[in-house]
């Protein structure tokens, strides 16, 4: 689960970088945006649903 959160934190940083770098050129902004999508393995909502599933699986193992 920690790898999942680490990927999410890095992607969030790249999303903010993409917004900030928009004034410095489209190339750098797009590169940061693509990096965020790669880290999230798709859209942010898909990553969030994966996080919820990962947490639910972890809780299921603790109860069992």
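^ structure tokens above, recovered residues below v
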């Amino acid at each position: 689960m920690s790898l999942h959160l680490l990927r999410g934190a890095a992607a969030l940083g790249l999303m903010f970088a993409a917004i900030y770098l928009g004034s410095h050129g489209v190339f750098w902004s797009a590169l940061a945006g693509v990096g965020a999508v790669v880290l999230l393995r798709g859209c942010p909502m898909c990553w969030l649903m994966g996080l919820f599933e990962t947490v639910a699986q972890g809780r299921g193992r603790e109860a069992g």
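Residues 22-59 form one domain.
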